[in-house]
Structure to design on (1208 residues):
């Protein structure tokens, strides 16, 4: 057993868990934060993407113990004070989701992508940067559209703090 | 239409919970005392079970129960069934092999469930599942349908000699033969429709809870049709009587057909909950999903298409072998028959059509409906053949299609279907214009200068949706009626709840269905809630598949709204002392037409419930239900154009343009409809370029059991799509809508393949057209 | 995943010590290969010794043409190092195409070369750059480091601490990814510098990463894509699987080599 201590969405949490507990499992089962999803076993679908110390990672490919001591942001922590993050708002406005299962990971990846590229995103870059996120519903059309719209919105205004 | 009514591009009401991580999927459910299940699965494709030793597993840490098929049988739990009876052409019924929820004597595919372990944690359940010692005696396996029919092939079910499930035909064979014999030209092809794994992003999951005090079961499950699940588990599997079984399908992360069926895991977890005394949750991992979700497609077909000297189609003859896997899944028998062969006329006047279908057992995962279900197979067959014929005849693909389009409606095909409305030339024209077809030659030349081979291809599809008239499908062998039910409850304050038997797993029903109410009564969609997915809340329903929630599900809502409207008007007429025929409902007001006399919608609702002043004899309340049974299928149709560039050095195909022009009849929410088309095209491109399910032909092991080997379309594999609509209203339902959920997956594969074969100048290419295959085809 | 015991090492010395105490332990850096392998129950180390928090293993130093990259440096940091880009853009480009953005945030150069997956990208670059692999025990030339599929010269308790090389005059990497896994089906790193021309090939060879000596010879006399026209790759030396026949891979090696040369200029 390992003691895992994290700051999740600004809140300090700790728990004793089996060493084999994945970060995704820790979030979902120990903290009951089920917004982070698990859609594959091979680190490819990206439904589990969260930010660890400000960087997008796959929470199904990291032990909770490896992450101990880190700051973690999940989909539940993105909307600050109830106001949707611009990426969340863009996904709604542009119909960037259907079943919603890949959506938390898509949004967390999109926020990370926009943070890294600022407003310098184009369709080709967005598609390449989505390599680690799989969606089966949308054919990606409206996801790409949502991310481009959010990037423009975020770079247009004074850059909104991502997290 | 109003800003939120029919035809409005309204953002989805359901999105907020999904974009904030507050969706509620089956794996998110936690109940007190809940434990975790793992299934012991066959590592062999075909083997007899000589013994199962559970002792070591049962003594492992955290293990609560290890249960096997013998115990399940002793408790009277029934075998899984196929709910659509097909008779062979000799009149004999299909050979349905026994499918035990937990195998007892024999396993028939890799992944076949043999035992269940229930433990405190998922990890412990898996540890113990590995410790269950099953003694197998391996048997030879067969994975390809063509091989399974050969003499000496391993026999999979004793009651299916030669592994043949049925040998069925439709149409007039003699007439088709005569047309071919006297044809000016015959195009002949062998067509393979590749096996696909649906891959909804949410893996299947179930949570079974037995309440001993009430002798009652609750099943949370990833289902597209919870009522059908309850019906089947109750009536056929003897899990519990219907009144003692509640099935809840909460948020479901995509289905595409794969979540229509009732799988062994739901049955076994409910039963295991009673046996072990704890709630039992099971969640598939992705490899388990690859192994055990119902797969799609997998046809091998020969086709002959005859033309007269004027390039008019005179006859079509089709011979198909369809692989149904190791067991007959719930609707598997209907897919390669009534959902496939009945669409073989396509958009064309073909006087004589004959199709023979043999379905076959193999040692592979069961095959059933996957997005499109039979119609993609029919469309691919026909549109590849028509394109090939155009090349052989030396006419343009558009010209050959125009020559043969059906232009008068209703049109009775030789294969059952009666097309009610359509304008195929309109969608062809729209697609070609959007694709700038006439500018292709210049684009091709420009690509050539960059060393790329550019090609263009089209596909004109038709499908049958809105499944289906109950009496008609009953006469064809369906075990259920395919109507839909709805209830509209107007609350005393005027807010509205719609209870529907349709199930939303991405389709946006919470928004679209609310738009119907907004349109009818002028109330905001925020005051309308849609309730679905729970057998305790909604009385009955047939669920969502086959693009039926619009044409059938919404028609039921319209019928219920009609009744509510009549009653509301009667109440208003009474209160306003006017004639009912003079009452109109507009913008949330119930008015006497041409006067300023009006009541607010909420006032009418309140009066219905206070019942202080209702017309004589009227019951209080404002709540109406309806069942809608369609009178015909609906017939969405359209034209897709795909343009590709192939890298001659690597064989890699890039889709540089994809155009869709669809006729879905009337549209409720264009944004959602476009989204459905995008998603369908994405899956169709996946089938054409990327996705190929492969079993080892000797061992029956699934070689593509994860995303490391099964190529899922990713964002950089597909382009942005140009989607547009033409409209001929559907005459058979009140909204005039046809359905849009599957068109993209149906129309796109042949367009892609026609484009690639055009680019490389070799027509001998099978799906998926991987870089390796295209590269080899360029050198053949 | 089978149960395991997690240890976090604060230094290389501590990591080596922990490994000595373990009974079948494994080092984990980014974990982007090891954790999925453990999830599939294909690896079952009794102990995991985490190297990710050892500060000494991180960072890139560029001094003139001398480059040193700490083993714990992530693919993301390699891809985005302005100093490295100035002297060896080919390696930055390679790193920017490993896995996906999330994997690049975690995965490390040390982890990648220690694992020596036959379809991993970095090993080809190490060979082509004539890099030196620095470990907790010694320095090993890249030519001696990669000994076969998933095989290296490393001892069980030996940790890669850094790689170093002299930046070439020109270099580039060209990869054809497996459509499903996106690992290399053929990846070719070409470098031209003080060591002459060196060509590293990954993803294709049936014994893992290798140097394509015929191409090196041809490019030494004429560093142009056309110089490779007359060469052929022996399909008998290629891997073959569901996604690519040996013939196809042999073709890809040549095509990727030509593209790498063309973009190295």
């Amino acid at each position: 057993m390992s003691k895992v201590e994290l700051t999740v969405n600004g809140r300090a949490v700790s728990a004793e868990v089996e060493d084999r507990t994945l970060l995704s499992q820790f979030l979902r089962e120990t903290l009951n934060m089920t917004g982070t999803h698990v859609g594959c076993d091979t680190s490819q679908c990206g439904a589990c993407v969260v930010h660890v110390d400000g960087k997008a990672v796959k929470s199904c490919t990291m032990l909770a113990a490896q992450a101990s001591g880190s700051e973690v942001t999940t989909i539940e922590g993105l909307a600050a004070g109830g106001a949707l993050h611009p990426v969340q708002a863009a996904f709604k406005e542009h119909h960037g989701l259907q079943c919603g299962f890949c959506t938390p990971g898509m949004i967390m990846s999109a926020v990370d992508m926009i943070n890294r590229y600022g407003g310098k995103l184009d369709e080709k870059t967005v598609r390449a940067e989505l390599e680690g996120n799989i969606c089966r519903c949308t054919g990606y059309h409206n996801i790409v559209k949502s991310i481009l719209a959010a990037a423009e919105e975020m770079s247009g205004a004074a850059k909104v703090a991502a997290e | 239409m109003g800003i939120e009514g029919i035809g409005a591009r309204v953002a989805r009401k359901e999105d907020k919970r999904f974009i904030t991580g507050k969706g509620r999927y089956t794996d998110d459910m936690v109940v007190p005392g809940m434990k975790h299940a793992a299934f012991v699965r066959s590592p062999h494709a075909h083997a007899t079970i000589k013994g199962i030793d559970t002792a070591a597993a049962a003594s492992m840490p955290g293990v609560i129960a290890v249960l096997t098929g013998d115990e399940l049988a002793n408790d009277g739990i029934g075998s899984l069934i196929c709910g659509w009876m097909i008779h062979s052409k000799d009149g004999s019924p299909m050979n349905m092999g026994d499918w035990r929820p937990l195998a007892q004597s024999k396993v028939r595919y890799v992944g076949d469930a043999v035992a269940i372990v229930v433990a405190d944690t998922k990890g412990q359940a898996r540890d113990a599942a590995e410790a269950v010692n099953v003694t197998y005696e391996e048997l030879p396996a067969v994975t390809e349908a063509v091989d399974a029919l050969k003499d000496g092939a391993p026999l999979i079910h004793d009651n299916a000699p030669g592994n043949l499930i049925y040998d069925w035909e439709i149409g007039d064979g003699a007439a088709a033969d005569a047309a071919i014999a006297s044809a000016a030209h015959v195009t002949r092809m062998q067509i393979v429709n590749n096996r696909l794994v649906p891959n909804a992003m949410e893996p299947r999951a179930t949570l079974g809870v037995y309440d001993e005090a009430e002798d009652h079961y609750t099943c949370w499950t990833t289902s597209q049709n919870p009522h059908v699940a309850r019906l089947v588990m109750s009536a056929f599997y003897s899990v519990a009587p219907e009144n003692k079984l509640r099935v809840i399908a909460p948020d479901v992360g995509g289905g595409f057909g794969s979540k229509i069926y009732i799988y062994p895991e739901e049955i076994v977890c409910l039963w295991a909950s009673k046996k072990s005394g704890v709630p039992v949750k099971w969640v598939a991992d992705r490899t388990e999903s690859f192994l055990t979700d119902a797969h799609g497609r997998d046809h091998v077909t020969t086709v002959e298409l005859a033309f007269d000297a004027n390039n008019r189609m005179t006859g079509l003859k089709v011979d198909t072998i369809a692989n149904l896997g190791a067991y007959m899944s719930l609707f598997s028998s209907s897919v390669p028959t009534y959902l496939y062969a009945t669409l073989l006329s396509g958009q064309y006047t073909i006087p004589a059509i004959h199709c023979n279908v043999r379905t076959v057992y193999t040692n592979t995962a069961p095959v059933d409906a996957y997005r499109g279900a039979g119609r993609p197979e029919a469309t691919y067959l026909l549109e590849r053949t028509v394109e090939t014929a155009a090349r052989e005849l030396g006419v343009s693909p558009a010209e050959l299609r125009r020559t043969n389009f059906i232009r008068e409606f209703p049109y009775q095909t030789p294969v059952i279907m009666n097309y009610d409305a359509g304008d195929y030339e309109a969608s062809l024209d729209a697609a070609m214009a959007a694709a700038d077809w006439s500018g292709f030659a210049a684009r091709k030349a420009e690509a050539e200068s960059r060393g790329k081979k550019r090609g263009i291809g089209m596909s004109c599809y038709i499908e049958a949706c809105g499944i289906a008239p109950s009496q008609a499908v009953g006469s064809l062998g369906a075990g259920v009626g395919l109507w839909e039910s709805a209830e509209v409850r107007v609350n005393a304050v005027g807010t509205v709840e719609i209870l529907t038997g349709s199930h939303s797993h991405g389709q946006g029903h919470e928004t679209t269905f609310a738009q119907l109410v907004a349109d009818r009564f002028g109330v905001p969609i925020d005051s309308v809630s849609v309730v679905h997915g729970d057998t305790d809340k909604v009385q009955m329903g047939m669920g969502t598949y086959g693009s039926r929630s619009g044409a059938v599900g919404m028609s039921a809502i319209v019928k219920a709204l009609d009744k509510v409207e009549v009653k509301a008007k009667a109440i208003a007429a009474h209160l306003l002392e006017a004639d009912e025929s003079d009452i109109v409902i507009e913008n949330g007001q119930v008015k006497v037409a041409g006067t300023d006399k009006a009541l607010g919608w909420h006032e009418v609702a309140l009066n219905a419930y206070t019942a202080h002043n209702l017309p004589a004899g009227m019951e209080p309340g404002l709540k109406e239900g309806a069942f809608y049974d369609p009178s015909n299928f609906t017939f969405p149709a359209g034209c897709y154009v795909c343009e590709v560039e192939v890298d001659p050095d690597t064989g890699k195909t890039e889709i540089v343009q994809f155009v869709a022009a669809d006729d879905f009849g009337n549209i409720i929410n264009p944004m959602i409809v476009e989204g459905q088309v995008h998603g369908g095209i994405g899956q169709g491109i996946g089938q054409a370029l990327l996705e190929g399910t492969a079993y080892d032909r000797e061992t029956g092991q699934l070689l593509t059991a994860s995303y490391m080997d099964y190529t899922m379309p990713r964002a950089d594999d597909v382009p942005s799509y140009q989607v547009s609509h033409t409209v001929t209203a559907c005459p058979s339902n009140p909204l005039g809508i046809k359905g849009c959920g599957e068109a993209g997956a149906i129309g796109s594969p042949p367009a892609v393949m026609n484009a690639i074969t055009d680019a490389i100048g070799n027509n001998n290419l099978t799906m998926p057209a991987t870089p390796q295959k295209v590269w080899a085809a360029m050198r053949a | 995943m089978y149960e395991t015991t997690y240890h976090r090492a604060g230094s290389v010395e501590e990591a080596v010590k922990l490994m000595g105490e373990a009974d079948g332990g494994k080092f984990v850096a980014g974990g982007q290969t090891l954790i999925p392998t453990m999830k599939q129950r294909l690896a079952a180390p009794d102990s995991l010794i985490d190297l990710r928090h050892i500060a000494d293993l991180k960072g890139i130093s560029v001094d003139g043409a001398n480059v040193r990259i700490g083993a714990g440096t992530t693919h993301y940091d390699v891809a985005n190092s302005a100093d490295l880009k100035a002297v060896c853009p080919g390696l930055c480009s390679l790193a920017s195409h490993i896995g996906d953005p999330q994997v690049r945030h975690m995965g490390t150069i040390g982890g990648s070369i220690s694992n020596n997956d036959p379809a991993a990208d970095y090993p080809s670059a190490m060979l082509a750059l004539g890099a030196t692999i620095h470990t907790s025990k010694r320095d090993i030339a890249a030519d001696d480091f990669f000994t076969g599929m998933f095989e290296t010269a490393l001892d069980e308790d030996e940790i890669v601490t850094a790689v170093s090389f002299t930046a070439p005059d020109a270099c580039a990497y060209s990869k054809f990814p497996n459509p499903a896994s996106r690992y290399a089906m053929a990846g070719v790193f070409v470098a031209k510098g003080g060591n002459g021309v060196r060509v590293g090939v990954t993803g294709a060879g049936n014994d893992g990463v290798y140097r394509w000596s015929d191409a090196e010879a041809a490019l030494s006399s004429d560093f142009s894509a056309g110089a490779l026209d007359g060469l052929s790759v022996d399909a008998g030396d290629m891997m073959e699987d569901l996604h690519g026949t040996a013939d196809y891979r042999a073709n890809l090696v040549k095509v990727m080599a030509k593209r790498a040369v063309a973009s190295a200029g």
Observations:
- The first strand of chain C starts at residue 5 and ends at 8.
